[in-house]
């Protein structure tokens, strides 16, 4: 799988130390590792829990030709300088310092860099498998493009999965129709929906324990996603051009395959129910990358699903966290949204420890950077995901298969999404279409029943309905959508008596609204914007109240010294 967050362990640094002497005979990079921040712990882009041995070299084992960063390093006299730190050797938009955990360019040898997580290789354009980076020409005797280089470094081995050796393991291949033509477009999402039961020899109650890619045309295939569908979803008679989701009823991610991964062998104690007790319909989604626009390419890739009737102790679940219903304003290089699944929320959400085996970020095309952090006891911060350069077409999967990430009731889970709308002159709303935006972290975890809901998402100014301390002091927040609550509320009665709808503005109305805004947190700032949009707007009493408040908008603003931009 792809880059996972690797926290440097004592064990690994010991191994590096003891082998340094031997390596010096072969090449001299281990001493250079000490000359750059985190030089000995830069993750391999596609091999989990593996470091890139010589950051400045083309080969992941260290020796041989230099990459773009290695050449810049040499030019600087093989030391970490301000100018080397500020350079972006691989041209991906992050400086060498940002990639190596020294964003302020203050690191000196034998000190701890300011950041030790979320590192990336300053010689490899990121996301390393994005269509843009793949097409980069590189200076090399062996390779022409980053794609050739990375495909060589990321060759997947066989899927090692002891469970598959057990008896009673069945397999079924869900591949899209033989001879399907790849459209002559840069990039395409193509889907086919299958009825698993019609492919099973004996229908029954099973669990999936592994998913392996079936790669037909490696030249165009970039990644594969497998979704579970609701039972009502019919199988599709043929593959079809699809969007972000294969269909409205196929929205449960099961797994994602990306270049370099041999497949997904689930944690040995876990499975996903299929057949009579679980999913019966699956959607396979392929992402094809055809930059030269050839029209003679065929593909029939897909996945092989391994399933067994010997049930595992735990069922895997999928938890969604993040922010819903936001607007990204136009013309901005970095718009940031933060979403907190608070400690109070995780206490009611989890009734026991939850073990995360895989996590990934999900935004759309103006997503720029994203992370999911876990804050424990208000002090200990860990990362579940970190994509310093996010790209929708190159999902980065963070795997914790061997050592699941433990989430406890009471942990805080903080999702941060940053968007770049610099090239847009319009507002991007939240939504499922690729022209809209999302901000979700997906966590695959077990045991499924230890999370009592499938999501913990926030709205508006980071409001989370599971924790009234996020209500910005408006304890009645959730009742605003009820017409009965509104019509009985004192504030509505006051507005009804003192304000006309739309106009004219009368002084007693201004005074009523000013008093409300001063005394009632529900009528203040961003929270009131949220209440207007999500609640008042949805019922006639709320709309009537809004029309009355609107009559004195200008007069109320002037009391609060708010000046609005006049039309130019
Ligand atoms: C890479 O090199 C090829 C051949 O020299 C050229 O056609 C192509 O435009 C180059 N690509 C980029 C992204 O510079
Ligand atoms: C099955 O077991 C054999 C022998 O122990 C091993 O070589 C092989 O890799 C195993 N297969 C899988 C899929 O793990
Ligand atoms: C796919 O079609 C080709 C040519 O039509 C044929 O040779 C091949 O056997 C088919 N493969 C499968 C898996 O049906
Ligand atoms: C959590 O609740 C579910 C459903 O009530 C139950 O099946 C499960 O055993 C509980 N887990 C723990 C650790 O108590
Ligand atoms: C949080 O801190 C308390 C008191 O210091 C400690 O008892 C508890 O084990 C800590 N929780 C975790 C999950 O580390
Ligand atoms: C929040 O909810 C708790 C438990 O339901 C309640 O005791 C408390 O008074 C509420 N706080 C506010 C500010 O509404
Ligand atoms: C508005 O500005 C006036 C004059 O500058 C000041 O006296 C008044 O306190 C301000 N009101 C608010 C609500 O800030």
From TrEMBL:
The keyword Glycoprotein applies. Residues 180-293 form the Copper type II ascorbate-dependent monooxygenase N-terminal domain. Residues 27-124 form the Temptin Cys/Cys disulfide domain. Keywords: Disulfide bond, Glycoprotein, Signal. Residues 1-28 form the signal peptide. GO terms for molecular function: copper ion binding; dopamine beta-monooxygenase activity. InterPro entries: Cu2_ascorb_mOase-like_C (IPR014784), Cu2_ascorb_mOase_N (IPR000323), Cu2_ascorb_mOase_N_sf (IPR036939), Cu2_monoox_C (IPR024548), DBH-like (IPR000945), PHM/PNGase_F_dom_sf (IPR008977), S-S_Temptin (IPR057626). Residues 316-461 form the Copper type II ascorbate-dependent monooxygenase C-terminal domain. This is DBH-like monooxygenase protein 1 isoform X1. It comes from Biomphalaria glabrata.
